[in-house]
Write a structure and sequence with these properties.
Elements (H helix, E strand, L loop, with lengths): L4 H48 L7 E2 L9 E7 L6 H7 L4 E7 L2 E9 L5 E7 H37 L1 H12 L18 H45 L7 H32 L9 E3 H18 L3 E7 L3 E3 L2 H18 L5 E9 L2 E8 L30 H11 L3 E6 L8 E8 L4
Parallel strand pairs: 7-9
Antiparallel strand pairs: 1-2, 2-5, 3-4, 4-5, 6-8, 9-10, 10-12, 11-12
Helix pairs in contact: 1-3, 5-6, 6-9, 7-8, 8-9
């Protein structure tokens, strides 16, 4: 079963055209055939009239009329004579008759002159049918040639008529995931207006729901931040109190849980802030991507040293991009935090920044264990930590990176390093390069 509306319309309309053309062709062929036969009968009658008035004398082939029509003048005399066929013809009444001549069917006109002599003007039935069939075929040929042209016109009309739907689908495909603006109703066929209006209503409801979720996340993070900070301070004050070893272990576990919760709240607030920021503000400044990366690496260098990780630039070209410096720094920091979390002691993280055509590329490689092939497609999902979670991460860092990259009109890809003797993860961010 064909699910394409275009295919259904094309097949339906072409089937109608083919059936109409076939039926019309059959009737046209039959009509043209009969008309050709009647025309040849009229020619025989006219020739017989000329013979009766003295225009032709003696039995002869009338090739002067039509060289291919095989018309004969047969003199039958005043009394039956000649061959049995001619004697049989003499006994027939005047008029148009079907008979045989030399064993072949013929169509003839019998006439009697004023002196009583009779004659016949005959034509081979086979030749008559051949001539009529040829004329009928010439009548049908234009119809047969018109059918492919009509099918082509139908295909063009369908394509042009459905072009607004294709344009609408392309516009939806090109949108960002968070773009909930209404679809335009102008330049659309009236039949599509109810459908597009329903989509716009759905987009509006989704925008309201997403807005409510964002406000809830931001409000909840703000509300939890103050009591969590107070708990952290109280836990730090307990460091100065003499506690037994068992209590000290429980305190360490508590502080670790509060650090993780604090990190979660910071990421939730960052996520809410980036989601609430208008798209225009994300592209308001021209920032050197290499400059933003140097600042982040300088901030994380001490942490990398404490973890025994070699963090540095492999390649750093000055490439300008459009975006908020804070947003770009958050993107780079989250990528490097993720790399630091999974890179073992003694490992290294290489950062490369360069231009690739019209795109600025930020590439970060580590020599950690990489990501399972079953999970690499999900690492940018919110709260996804995989089967090997490390540190205090909550699974929001790479999700925030994806949001920032989408807002800046770029792309991000993560692949496992599979070179011989190497393991790790390579993350490549591509952003539109700007004019400095």
């Amino acid at each position: 079963m064909i699910n394409s509306l275009r295919g259904r319309l094309f097949i339906s309309l072409t089937t109608i055209v083919l059936l109409t053309g076939l039926i019309g062709g059959v009737f046209a062929h039959r009509w043209a055939f009969d008309e050709a036969i009647e025309t040849q009968d009229s020619v025989l009658i006219q020739i017989a009239g000329l013979v009766q008035s003295g225009g032709f004398t003696g039995a002869q082939d009338l090739h002067g009329v039509d060289e291919d029509s095989e018309v004969w003048l047969i003199e039958l005399g005043k009394t039956p004579q000649g061959t049995p066929e001619e004697r049989q013809l003499w006994r027939l009444q005047d008029g148009m008759r079907d008979a045989t001549r030399k064993g072949k069917p013929v169509r003839l006109v019998l006439k009697t002159r004023l002196d009583g002599s009779r004659f016949a003007v005959a034509q081979s039935t086979g030749v008559r049918d051949e001539i009529a069939s040829d004329m009928a075929l010439r009548t049908v040929l234009p119809i047969a040639a018109l059918i492919p042209c009509l099918m082509l016109v139908i295909a063009i009309v369908i394509a042009v008529s459905l072009r607004p739907m294709v344009r609408l689908a392309d516009e939806l495909d090109a949108r960002r995931a968070d773009d909930m603006t209404a679809l335009p109703l102008h330049d659309l066929p009236s039949e599509l207006n109810p459908f597009v209006s329903s989509i716009n209503g759905l987009l509006q409801r989704m925008d309201e729901m997403i807005g409510q979720q964002r406000r809830f996340i931001a409000d909840a993070a703000h509300e939890l931040r103050t009591p969590l900070t107070a708990l952290s301070l109280q836990a730090e004050n307990l460091d100065q109190v003499e506690l037994p070893p068992a209590a000290r272990e429980r305190l360490a576990t508590l502080r670790q849980g509060m650090r993780r919760s604090k990190h979660l709240l910071e990421q939730l607030l960052a996520l809410a802030r980036h989601d609430a920021a208008p798209s225009e503000s994300a592209q308001s400044e021209v920032v050197g991507l290499d400059h933003a990366a140097r600042g982040v690496i300088a901030d994380l260098l001490q942490e990398a040293i404490s973890r025994g990780v070699d963090l540095g630039f492999e390649r750093a070209e000055p490439v300008p991009v459009r975006g908020e410096p804070i947003m770009l720094a958050a993107m780079i920091r989250n990528l490097l935090d993720n790399a630091l979390r999974f890179t073992p002691r003694g490992g290294r993280i290489d950062v490369a920044i360069y231009r690739d055509g019209a795109m600025a590329v930020l590439q970060i490689e580590d020599n950690g264990p990489g990501v399972s092939p079953d999970e690499i497609g999900r690492i940018f999902e919110p709260f996804f930590r995989g089967q090997r979670p490390e540190g205090d991460g909550v699974g929001l860092g790479l999700s925030i990176v994806r949001r920032i990259v989408d807002r800046l009109g770029g792309s991000i890809d993560a692949v496992n390093i599979t070179e011989s003797g190497r393991t790790g993860l390579q993350v490549a961010v591509k952003l539109p390069a700007a004019v400095a």
